[in-house]
Amino acid sequence: MSQNLNAKIDQGLSIQNISKQFGDVKALDDVSLNVAQGEFFTLLGPSGCGKTTLLRIIAGLELADAGRIFSGGKEITRLPAIKRQVNTVFQSYALFPHLTIFENVAFGLRSRKFPEDEIRKRVHRRLEMLDLGAMARRHPHQLSGGQKQRVALARALVNEPDVLLLDEPMSALDARLRAQVQEDLRRLQRKLGHTFILVTHDQAEALVCSDRIAVMRQGQVRQCGTPEAVYDNPRDSFVAKFLGAANLIPATRVDGGVDTAFGFLALEKVPPWTTGTVAIRPEWIGIGETQPAVNGIRARVSEIVYRGTSFDLWLEPGPLRVRTSSYRRIDPGRDVWLELAPRELVILEDEAC
Ligand code: ATP
What we know:
- The protein has nine helices and 20 strands.
- By secondary structure, it is of the alpha+beta class.
- It has a six-stranded mixed sheet with strand order 6-7-8-3-9-10, with helices on both faces.
- The longest helix has 18 residues, at about 175-190.
- It starts with a helix and ends in a 6-residue tail after the last strand.
């Protein structure tokens, strides 16, 4: 890790051994994470894995049963929410319907008794930045979903928090708008250099927005790393499947590789297990007419689905799901050679679930 990133981690958030129980439910089980200052960090996982609980503990809206939190080196574990340099944007934008957009954004500054000219300056700056300058006099019901979401962001950002927490802020938007807001959010975070922590169960959103992603399952962090690291090198079958389509192939270790239902597959590394799983992303599988030098599998196309920019293919024998990233259509019934290149095969640490 570079010295620069180390320094940023020292100034950022340190979450140490946090646990939280609700009755019989272990919402968080010994979670430790470091979020660097100025980082776009995402908590990704299925419903109920503990993402929101962790976000609420960071915000000071919930107290952990065990563990400690530090911000910029100072302990904030028991610091009341109001005293934390943290703002949260929730799933429901929770705008005040009777106030104009300007007044919605100004609300936090007014309650903190900022002088009027300072309020005007700050609110207008944020509205302009989020392309809402022309909306200042409107009321929330006169805005689209995406515009309301941007107002909620402006309202949080006007307070210049050290850390901005975003709890599924895009879940109410349609797919096109969601993609737009994701890009806006990423651009805004880069421009401001504030720390953003996003909660989402949408893997595509996490990949687009984040510097790093923590993949959570049942109250634990299964893997934490850059989008490329968790996508390209998932640690186990849960992470492999949650981050996108993956072919999970049960395997037994043999000399130089593994034995599978498709026969011998050469690997670059020796698996740490005797029986386990290797994974390959659909788009990493080569498809050709001639037998590849290594890891070739002869298979028949059984089904094809058009997806606009690519095709999904299903092949026999076995449930291998292959997506080509070209426009090439391969008709069902055709026999092809698949190449599962050794460098593209990921050795998972568990047996397929
Ligand atoms: P979602 O994506 O559905 O919002 P999540 O990953 O954010 O889920 P949490 O809301 O953190 O999950 O919940 C984690 C677990 O703790 C769940 O099983 C949930 O039912 C439970 N839980 C959360 N808050 C409470 C509470 N106040 N009382 C009882 N159980 C709770």
